[in-house]
Write a structure and sequence with these properties.
InterPro entries: AB_hydrolase_fold, Peptidase_S10, Ser_caboxypep_his_AS, Ser_caboxypep_ser_AS. GO terms for molecular function: serine-type carboxypeptidase activity. This is Carboxypeptidase. Heterodimer of a 32 kDa chain and a 20 kDa chain; disulfide-linked. Its EC number is 3.4.16.-. The structure is a single chain. By secondary structure, the protein is α/β, with parallel strands linked by helices. It has a domain at 11-212 and 404-504: 3-Layer(aba) Sandwich (Rossmann fold). The chain is built from 14 helices and 20 strands. The strands form six sheets. Strands 4-8-5-10-11-17-20-19-18 form a nine-stranded mixed beta sheet, with helices on both faces. A three-stranded mixed beta sheet has the order 14-15-16, with no helix packed on it. Helix 2 (148-165) packs across helix 3 (182-193), helix 3 (182-193) runs parallel beside helix 11 (407-415) and helix 4 packs across helix 12. The two termini are 44 Å apart.
């Protein structure tokens, strides 16, 4: 049985009338050498009556994969929302297929099921794979080394191209959204967009975003201890060796015993079998440590370090599959630890084929679907492009992180006094924990308008329930989603849609 294509998607896998994503496709250049618009003959109307057929885009040097899903409400008046997944180096098609797209991939890798909490119920959503090299995006020169500034500029140009090709959306309200490393992507992009009067920028929202490396690391240790993950021996040693005068430095502390303690914390949080993206969810594939690779792959071997009680595994779980070393470290927490740097250097020198697979996630269904020849053909994916993977190791390992904090970007946006900004966090995520982002928002020192309070979602027969907590400052809010992990719309879809709707409509949370 082949996977359903955009021309024959069936709700819940039944024999109902066909439904489809109304895609924007990357296409061929027009007769004049520029981008072309193409209605896409393969598209049929759906029972959900999404308003427009697939269209095509082409960029000159970098072919950036973009999928555009028009609003089920009213495309002409609905806002345009850009969505970026993070990494760096991970595909935004994951957001489309597993988080808040109109159809979600099912475990069989074949069935797409209608999502009653899709964000395109109320918005036109543009999913952009960024940077080049991620997913189906590629660069003609096959150079995938990039940095925060280049990616912001490239994403800005991709947005301008979109509105150039589809000027009917130019007047619509524009919101920039994303999660994880989009905590860097989105504010750096927003600073560029705010300077372009041709785009109707109204606000930005970042979910479980990496806003500050220092605050993320420092808060993670507290999060781990107060969630029962660190024993009293380790906690006491952390207090002794990493803290002084009532202040702790868990980010770039050079004291040897502190570094050894932080190696243990890193191992517990990221490679012991706990799900770093949702503390209370199971780890896909199981929590048992996987067999390390052969001795010729030292990158997969436990490493002794200074005062650590026992050899510490690499920050990520590392395994060997056929001729490939599979690693799971995206490089966003405890980046200053010496063992981390040694591990990266060993990995780069190994000369091995390496695949990046985020920990405790199962990407088989999305991968099987997007790599099916029928689907690739229907999506107009060039035959020469490699298979789709959730994350690209080369993009990630070569990526230059130029910013340690997004403070200056947010202050610049806030100084305009006209954008609606939301930072939201699932409160059981450890990759970008809620405490660090709350500290970050507090550090911006904006005028408090609404004290921290519960926010509610109406669950019908169950009545209104507390969905999390929110506090609002002038033009910026911080909000938690109770019981959600890193991918909030996956874990709490109704709460996520409710939050998204209130954000777009400038309603109280």
């Amino acid at each position: 049985m082949r996977p359903a294509e955009p021309a024959d998607l069936r709700r819940g896998g039944t024999s109902a009338a066909p439904v489809l994503y109304p895609w924007v496709h990357r296409g061929q250049k027009g007769a004049g050498g520029g981008p072309s618009r193409d209605a896409g003959a393969h598209v049929t109307r759906s029972t959900h009556d999404f308003p427009s057929p697939g269209r095509h885009l082409q960029e000159s040097k970098d072919a950036r994969e973009r999928r555009f899903v028009e609003s089920q409400k009213d495309p002409k008046s609905s806002p345009v929302v850009l969505w970026l997944n993070g990494g760096p180096g991970c595909s935004s098609l994951d957001g489309l297929l597993t988080e808040h797209g109109p159809f979600l991939i099912q475990p069989d890798g074949v069935t797409l099921e209608y999502n009653p909490y899709s964000w395109n119920l109320i918005a036109n959503v543009l999913y952009l794979e960024s940077p080049a090299g991620v997913g189906f995006s590629y660069s003609d020169d096959k150079s995938y080394a990039t940095n925060d500034t280049e990616v912001a500029q490239s994403n800005f140009e991709a947005l301008k191209d979109f509105f150039c090709l589809f000027p009917e959306y130019k007047g619509n309200e524009l919101f920039l959204t994303g999660e994880s490393y989009a905590g860097i992507y989105i504010p750096t992009l927003a600073v560029l967009v705010m300077q372009d009067p041709s785009m109707n920028l109204q606000g930005l929202a970042v979910g479980n975003g990496l806003s500050s490396y220092e605050q993320n690391d420092n808060s993670l240790v507290y999060f781990a201890y107060y969630h029962g993950l660190l024993g009293n021996r380790l906690w006491s040693s952390l207090q002794t060796h990493c803290c002084s005068q009532n202040k702790c430095n868990f980010h770039d502390n050079k004291e040897p015993e502190c570094v050894a303690n932080l190696q243990e914390v890193s191992h517990i949080v990221a490679s012991s079998g706990l799900n770093i993206y949702n503390l209370y969810a199971p780890c896909a594939g199981g929590a048992q440590p996987r067999k390390v690779g052969p001795a010729r792959h030292p990158v997969c071997q436990p490493q002794p370090y200074l005062g650590a009680q026992a050899p510490i595994s690499p920050h990520c779980t590392c395994r060997h599959e056929k001729d490939t070393v599979v690693v799971q470290d995206l490089g966003n927490i405890f980046t200053r630890l010496p063992l981390k740097r040694v591990w990266h250097q060993t990995l780069l020198r190994s000369g091995e084929k390496v695949h990046l697979d985020p920990p405790c996630t199962n990407t088989t269904a999305a991968s099987n679907y997007l790599n099916d020849p029928h689907v690739r053909k229907a999506l107009h994916i060039p035959e020469q492009l490699p298979r789709w993977d959730l994350c690209n190791f080369l993009v990630n390992i070569q990526y230059r992180r130029l910013y340690q904090s997004m403070c200056s970007q947010y202050l610049k946006l806030l100084s305009a006094q006209k954008y609606r900004i939301l930072l939201y966090n699932g409160d059981v995520d450890m990759a970008c924990n809620f405490m660090g982002d709350e500290w970050f928002v507090d550090s911006l020192n904006q005028k408090m308008e609404v004290q921290r309070r519960p926010w509610l979602v109406d669950y019908g027969e169950s009545g209104e329930q507390i969905a999390g907590f929110v506090k609002e400052f002038s033009h910026i809010a911080f909000l938690t989603i109770k019981g959600a992990g890193h991918m909030v719309p996956t874990d709490k879809p109704q709460a996520a849609l409710t939050m998204f709707s209130r954000f777009l409509n400038r309603q109280p949370y």
